[in-house]
Amino acid sequence: MTGEHTLYLLGTGAQPVLNIAVAVERAQADGWQVCLGLTPTAAGWLHPYLPGLEALTGHPVRAHYKLPGEADVWPAADVVLLAPATFNSINRWALGLTDSFVLGYAAEALGRGIPTVALPCVNGALAAHPQYARSLDTLRTAGARVLTPAPLSLTAPGQDDTPGFDWPLALSEARAAYQTFQAARTSGI
Fold first, then answer.
1. Per the confidence metrics, is the pTM higher than 0.85?
2. How far apart are CA 81 and CA 36, in angstroms?
3. At what angle are helices 167-187 and 20-29 packed, to 10 degrees?
4. Could you state a single Gene Ontology molecular function term (predicted)?
């Protein structure tokens, strides 16, 4: 656990989540204390590595809502980064469907005014679906910074279609969102 400001890194079930430890280490090197939340699918994929990720962050990895009355195990978020964000997650988030801790927290962060950034991991066929563009617009209108990298090319099933997922860009945008928020708060805007 490092840093005085807290980044909630929320990952979904897209292939780049398998390298989320790299993002945690980069964020920590940039001075963030990182709390890692995963969708149930992502947590299932990373199940053997969860103890190591908890040791790396110094916090429990969360994949489920806490029980009513249960104390929160994480410090308050200064910024939220939803990455990788799947097609399903982007659409569910935009529609306010909060059936997972990750999407519930991302939705709540917008309502609380916590700076929130998302980096989708979506292939070209899914990005062409009309709901995707509507969801991106909805999230941006609500205050999220949603990055739109070029859609991933379609590959044969089982092939890595995400070799260039841009963790540095996602973390840089999270830092910029936090700084913009702090500057506005300081100036009274």
1. yes
2. 10
3. 40
4. catalytic activity
